[in-house]
Amino acid sequence: MGLSTHVLDTMHGTPAAGMAVELYATGGGAATLVKRFVLNQDGRSPDGPLYADGALKAGTYRLVFEVAAYFRGKGVDLPQPPFLDRVTLDFGIAHPQQHYHVPLLASPWSYSTYRGS
What we know:
mainly beta, Immunoglobulin-like, 4-stranded mixed β-sheet, 4-stranded antiparallel β-sheet, 1 helix, globular
């Protein structure tokens, strides 16, 4: 049923509008860029699902979130190097007929994720 993501800025209590994200298909030791996008005002991909119904295949994927650049853009004074720079999530799709939602809750010092609905 597809793949989606969204990011919540837990430092400011808002969606992470303006954060850059990359999606990769991974496998066999290689990572192939599928798309780059910047999160909209809701902290979601402006184009909707990252993979639409029927296009998602079983396999492994990677989402890369530009956390430090986002927080610097919000005026947060981060050390150099930042504690978190790019947050990389590697995950597997076992049942592509189901919907996979991969949210990220992030601050400059922590993050969490889960499989949402």
